[in-house]
């Protein structure tokens, strides 16, 4: 999506204003802080406000900072804002004494040349560059005359991503001085309704935060306001410096009546897909670990600590192996092994024994891991219903064997062949991160930079948690070809627990009511066999058998099955469809009739549009019209004409019993009966739906 090109943005403000040395203003105003009440080196920042409006996960943010030069000489003020890496700037203006100078946002190559030219000519210019784990920094400076006021206004936008079941909005707060009017104001509107909303700050205690923070939500709307007074900003009761220095994070989630939600506005649609309650798909993981000499010391120790924690989270149905590379390649086992308690204990011993040595052979390390995953599938060493993942960690560039980045990318791409994702972790700054990122992206994964801090092991573990619980594989989001003009990415190797898939597109025509979205994916693998004598639940070839005399509830990997003694069985799949099977019993010695089962589907609209069968073909809305009601052959049952599927059919008024709530007596439902075995109403003929026998 658009956010992918944010790191390539440079904003150039070509106003012709001169530039010289500077103190800074919020979000970072640097310089001496000895002057009282927010005046630093003669410059007072008297107002900073962040105003955010979030609609359907899309955040529109405006950062406005106002400053005045109280010195008797000109001062240069620099406006620094740290923004999320997934955001993109859409506008910037600079206003000095009522005169506004607009900025121009350019893409990387064009903007970089204009930026360098502007700087060489002494003009005011802004630049975006990396500023930590989650942030990019925007900086622009301007010379302000004595007594003059300046207003900086930056607008940026961001699609909030769902992580571990919550959307996160991340704001950096770092004014570096007391600000008379400091405020964060966030309005959230979610058509699905807001289910939870929270806010926290890393720089302030909960007691102080509570008095400066207000948060509320009801229905579709939520609001967060953080407005500390001058006294609440002080680092101590008598101090003149600010304690506002850290992260302000807002998290929320939405109501989900169904796994998917499609929103249509002004000819465009956005499809949000986040099923819940599905079973985790077993995974086959090849950990490809750099143990070259540069990993010596704390890096390798933190890698070991992270791997030991990851082993604690491995499930017994998972398979794994470790591939270590330096100047050559070695492996823990010859092939993938199951994560049994015995194997995991042996894996811990192996991890603890890892030692650094030699050069960096990224190419051969990756190819060995990929080959191992491919062979495991070909030789049926892993479950058929499982998914493969390659996780590679390195802290440097390839310097032995195949060392050309483009050739390594080609080799890896050909070896994987689109069958599974590659995730690359770059440890530190002394590596070609673009190479790691490009290689991961073209193999349906992503890259992460692991920062050389005391919590590097937690960073590694945090990454693993993102990919540890795949719920679906081979996800395809399909839409009517004649109804859309453009589409963002709509196929995904995996859907992970707590995340969300978002697809957007341009609709053709005005008939939005006929727009449908179909989602296909591989995940659940259950079979439920029901007869009038017993009920069998099969999970990966393991059966569990129950009788109609039982009263039980079974919850297993996202499936819920409830047996109500001698009445019915209710089967629910996560947030999806619920099926009800009703047991109809007759007199045991009846010469003709047998016990039989009634099959009902609750919330059938949640079934895919591709569902078919005698019942399934009617789960989605279809056009029909009943007219010309007239007396029938039975005076109590009128006839009428039903127009459906271009056919005109004669139908008769009658009633039927619905046994979902009362299996013995049932509920009377008035309906129209179609004659001739449903000819003209059903697809095909009735014999297409008849099985050889029922008993």
TrEMBL record:
Instruction: Report the GO terms under cellular component.
Output: extracellular region
Q: What is this protein called?
A: Inter-alpha-trypsin inhibitor heavy chain H3
InterPro entries the record matches: ITI_HC_C (IPR010600), ITIH (IPR050934), VIT (IPR013694), VWF_A (IPR002035), vWFA_dom_sf (IPR036465)
Q: What does this protein do?
A: May act as a carrier of hyaluronan in serum or as a binding protein between hyaluronan and other matrix protein, including those on cell surfaces in tissues to regulate the localization, synthesis and degradation of hyaluronan which are essential to cells undergoing biological processes.
Which residues, if any, are the signal sequence?
A: 1-20
Pfam families with a match to the protein in the record: ITI_HC_C, VIT, VWA
Per the record, the domain of life is Eukaryota
What terms describe the molecular function in GO for this protein?
Answer: serine-type endopeptidase inhibitor activity
Oligomeric state and partners?
I-alpha-I plasma protease inhibitors are assembled from one or two heavy chains (HC) and one light chain, bikunin. Pre-alpha-inhibitor (P-alpha-I) is composed of ITIH3/HC3 and bikunin.
Pinpoint the VWFA domain residues: 284-467
Limits of the VIT domain: 29-158
Chief location category: secreted
Give the family this protein belongs to, as stated in its UniProt record. Belongs to the ITIH family.
Q: Which organism is it from?
A: Rhinopithecus bieti
Keywords attached to this Swiss-Prot or TrEMBL record, sorted alphabetically, are: Glycoprotein, Protease inhibitor, Proteoglycan, Secreted, Serine protease inhibitor, Signal
Annotated localization: Secreted
GO terms of biological process kind: hyaluronan metabolic process
Q: Which CDD domains match?
A: vWA_interalpha_trypsin_inhibitor
């Amino acid at each position: 999506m658009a956010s992918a090109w944010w790191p390539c943005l440079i904003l150039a403000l070509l106003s012709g204003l001169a530039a010289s040395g500077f103190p800074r203003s919020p979000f970072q105003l640097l310089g001496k802080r000895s002057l009282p009440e927010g005046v630093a080196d003669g410059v007072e920042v008297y107002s900073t406000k962040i105003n955010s409006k979030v609609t359907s996960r899309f955040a529109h943010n405006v950062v406005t900072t106002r400053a005045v030069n109280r010195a008797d000489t000109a001062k240069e003020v620099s406006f620094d804002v740290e923004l999320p890496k997934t955001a993109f700037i859409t506008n910037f203006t600079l206003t000095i004494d009522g005169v506004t100078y607009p900025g121009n946002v350019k893409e990387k190559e064009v903007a970089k040349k204009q930026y360098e030219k502007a700087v060489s000519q002494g003009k005011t210019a802004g630049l975006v560059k990396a500023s930590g784990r989650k942030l990019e920094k925007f900086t622009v400076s301007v010379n302000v005359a004595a007594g003059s006021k300046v207003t900086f206004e930056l607008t940026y936008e961001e699609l909030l991503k769902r992580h571990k079941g919550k959307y996160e909005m991340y704001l950096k707060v770092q004014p570096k001085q007391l600000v008379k009017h400091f405020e964060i104001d966030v309005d959230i509107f979610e058509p699905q309704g807001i289910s939870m909303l929270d806010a926290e700050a890393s720089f302030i205690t909960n007691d102080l935060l509570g008095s400066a923070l207000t948060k509320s939500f009801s229905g579709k709307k939520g609001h967060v306001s953080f407005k500390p007074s001058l006294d609440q900003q002080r680092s101590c009761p008598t101090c003149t410096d600010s304690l506002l220095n850290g992260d302000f994070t807002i998290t929320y989630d939405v109501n989900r009546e169904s796994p998917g939600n499609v929103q249509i506005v002004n000819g465009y649609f956005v499809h949000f897909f986040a099923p819940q309650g599905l079973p985790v798909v077993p995974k086959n993981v090849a950990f490809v670990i750099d143990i070259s000499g540069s990993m010596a010391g704390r890096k390798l120790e933190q890698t070991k600590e992270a791997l030991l924690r990851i082993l604690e989270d491995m499930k017994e149905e998972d398979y794994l192996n470790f591939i270590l590379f330096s100047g050559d390649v070695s492996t823990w086992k010859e092939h993938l092994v199951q994560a049994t308690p015995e194997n995991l204990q042996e894996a811990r011993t192996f991890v603890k024994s890892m030692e650094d040595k030699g050069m960096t052979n990224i190419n051969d390390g990756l190819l060995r891991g990929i080959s191992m995953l491919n062979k495991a599938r070909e030789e049926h060493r892993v479950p058929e219903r499982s998914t493969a993942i390659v996780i590679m960690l390195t802290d440097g560039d390839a310097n032995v064997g195949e060392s050309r980045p483009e050739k390594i990318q080609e080799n890896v791409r050909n070896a994987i062949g689109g069958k599974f994702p590659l995730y690359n972790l770059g440890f530190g700054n002394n590596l070609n991160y673009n190479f790691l990122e490009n290689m991961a992206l073209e193999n349906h994964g992503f890259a992460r930079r692991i920062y050389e801090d005391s919590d590097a092991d937690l960073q590694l573990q945090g990454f693993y948690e993102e990919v540890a619980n795949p719920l679906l594989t081979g996800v395809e989001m399909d839409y009517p070809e004649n109804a859309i003009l453009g589409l963002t990415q709509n196929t995904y190797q995996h859907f992970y627990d707590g995340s969300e898939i978002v697809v957007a597109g341009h609709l053709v025509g005005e008939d939005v009511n006929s727009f449908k979205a179909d989602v296909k994916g591989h995940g659940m693998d259950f079979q439920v066999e029901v007869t009038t004598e017993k009920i069998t639940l099969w999970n990966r070839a393991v059966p569990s058998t129950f009788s109609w005399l039982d009263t039980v509830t079974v919850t297993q990997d996202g499936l819920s099955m409830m047996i109500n003694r001698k009445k019915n069985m209710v089967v629910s799949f996560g947030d999806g469809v619920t099926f009800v099977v009703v047991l109809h019993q007759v007199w045991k010695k009846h010469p003709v009739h047998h016990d039989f089962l009634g099959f009902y589907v609750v919330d059938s609209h949640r079934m895919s549009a591709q569902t078919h069968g005698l019942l399934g073909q009617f789960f989605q809305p279809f056009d029909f019209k009943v007219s010309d009601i007239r007396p029938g052959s039975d005076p109590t049952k009128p006839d009428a004409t039903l127009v459906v599927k271009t056919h005109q059919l004669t139908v008769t008024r009658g009633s039927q019993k619905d046994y979902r709530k009362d299996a013995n007596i049932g509920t009377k439902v008035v309906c129209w009966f179609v004659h001739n075995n449903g000819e003209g109403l059903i697809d095909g003929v009735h014999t297409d739906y008849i099985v050889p026998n029922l008993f």
